């Protein structure tokens, strides 16, 4: 039971980041590596701000602003300087490593004695795990509702169109560069918020936090799509939250079954590779048979 | 309506593969003109269309649409003047947006995109009526993803989207070439009707001589980057394929590359 509540609470915090990854990976059709730096950046900003006496909610908002800036830089590198999207993200990610070290001042910053966003609910008598679930759920619901609304606006439709069919989008008079930047800004804002919440939940911010996070995000996106997603946009967004939670539950179960935590990243990477390769594997296993006899 | 003056376009300038694709192209379309543009492969038809649309920018010359000099305007900034239908049926619509959202997206061509709803309920009713013109039953499928439509349906929808907000100039780039002959003819007849009804100034690229002769009030033929024929009015109406081939030979001093154009 404890494992399940722990997985749900952690999954909800990571679901914000999963939605961010979905925006770049599925809607913009870009694999944005920036998130590896942004998640640690969100954690670093929030941790340092809280230690310096800032209100935890304001600190989380500040982390969000930091994420937006990171997304903006990747967007400018890609659209204005024409650097390929993947490389733009990697450049920002690497740059952020140094910046995050500067923000943290050292490799690891403890938040043990500081108030955080969960304290308010813990003071109301909730257990730590339940307080995390409440906050995680509130954040996930707000994110899903706002994004659902946004992607149904003229601007949101333009972002969606730009990822799917940039030529046509320009033919309709939309500046596709701005839409890519906007998508990256929103995505990284969410990732940074996720990082800020995770840091407050685990009571420390760590420079290494981001490593492999893009793969965790992708794994959650794919699990969500395969298990829960339907045609409707709202169901797609909710599926992402469920996917992030399911990923955490799977990981907890695998660890419980005795897998060494050292193998965790290998496990996740292999899972994502298999999931992404599924369409190819399917056609190899079941080639489309054309029966000529029947046709005649 | 369209005024092209002395346009040159060179691909890969300064290399061994340098190719002058457009040479001193001058073309004037009056309001309501429906011109078909024909020529063999590599004649420069698509490049000319892309220069008008802003996909390429010409190396020399001036392009004016509706009196506005757009020579240097990038693609999305001149989009408000143009309606475009592409050769590839996948190019004209957004596959993961519904039919209704696609039309609403096109209706807002050239407008600033705001945080208002991308499609309102009054619009939905309007678009249902609009889709009836196509006679494809799409009016009952407003919430269906455009990606689920067939090539012909998508091309018909794209045509509707290109003309729903009346463009100053309609550019059709072999928009029936990727369809089977029966569907192609249906789409072409539909195009003809909508263009006539709205009196749209149109430039239609085609590979098919018969279509080029049958439709429109002007026929323009390109060869090696130049406009070699511009036939209009009565003369255009009397035109036959044989006649056109002869005139092409005279004007260009070459045989028309006949493999594709005549087979239809």
What would your notes on this structure say?
The complex is a heterodimer of chains A (296) and B (264). Chain A has 13 helices and two strands. With 296 residues, chain A is mainly α. Chain A has a single domain (2-295), classed as ABC transporter involved in vitamin B12 uptake, BtuC (Orthogonal Bundle), CATH 1.10.3470. Chain A has a two-stranded antiparallel ribbon. Chain A is globular, with a radius of gyration of 20 Å. The relative contact order of chain A is 0.19. In chain B, helix 3 packs parallel to helix 5 and helix 5 (151-164) packs parallel to helix 6 (181-198). Chain B is globular and about 60 Å long. The model of chain B has no long low-confidence stretch (mean pLDDT 90). Chain B has a six-stranded mixed beta sheet with strand order 6-7-8-3-9-10, with helices on both faces. In chain B, strands 2-1-4-5 form a four-stranded antiparallel beta sheet, with helices on one face. In chain B, helix 6 links the parallel strand 7 and strand 8. The longest helix of chain B has 18 residues, at 181-198. Classes of the chains: A mainly alpha (296), B alpha/beta (264). Chain A binds chain B through residues 150, 152-158, 160-161, 164-165, 167-176, 231, and chain B through 53, 75-77, 79-80, 82, 84, 86, 90-97, 101, 104-106, 108-111, 113-118, 145.
Key words describing this protein structure:
heterodimer; A: 296 residues; mainly alpha; ABC transporter involved in vitamin B12 uptake, BtuC; B: 264 residues; alpha/beta; Rossmann fold; six-stranded mixed β-sheet; 10 helices; 10 strands; 23% strand; globular
The CATH class of chain B is identified as: Alpha Beta
- Largest sheet: spatial strand order of chain B: 6-7-8-3-9-10
Secondary-structure element string of chain B: EEEHEEHEHHHEHEHEEHHH
Low-confidence stretches of chain A: none
- Mean pLDDT of chain B, to the nearest integer, reads 90
List the helices and strands and how they pair.
The complex is a heterodimer of chains A (about 300) and B (about 260).
Chain A: H1 2-27, H2 34-51, H3 56-79, H4 85-104, E1 108-110, H5 119-123, H6 128-150, H7 154-164, H8 166-171, H9 176-202, E2 204-206, H10 213-228, H11 233-256, H12 264-285, H13 292-295
Antiparallel strand pairs in A: 1-2
Helix pairs in contact in A: 1-6, 1-9, 1-10, 1-11, 2-3, 2-4, 2-9, 3-4, 3-9, 6-11, 7-9, 10-11, 10-12
Chain B: E1 2-11, E2 19-29, E3 34-39, H1 45-53, E4 60-65, E5 68-69, H2 75-78, E6 82-85, H3 99-107, H4 121-132, H5 151-164, E7 169-173, H6 181-198, E8 202-205, H7 209-214, E9 218-223, E10 226-232, H8 233-237, H9 241-252, H10 258-263
Parallel strand pairs in B: 3-8, 3-9, 6-7, 7-8
Antiparallel strand pairs in B: 1-2, 1-4, 4-5, 9-10
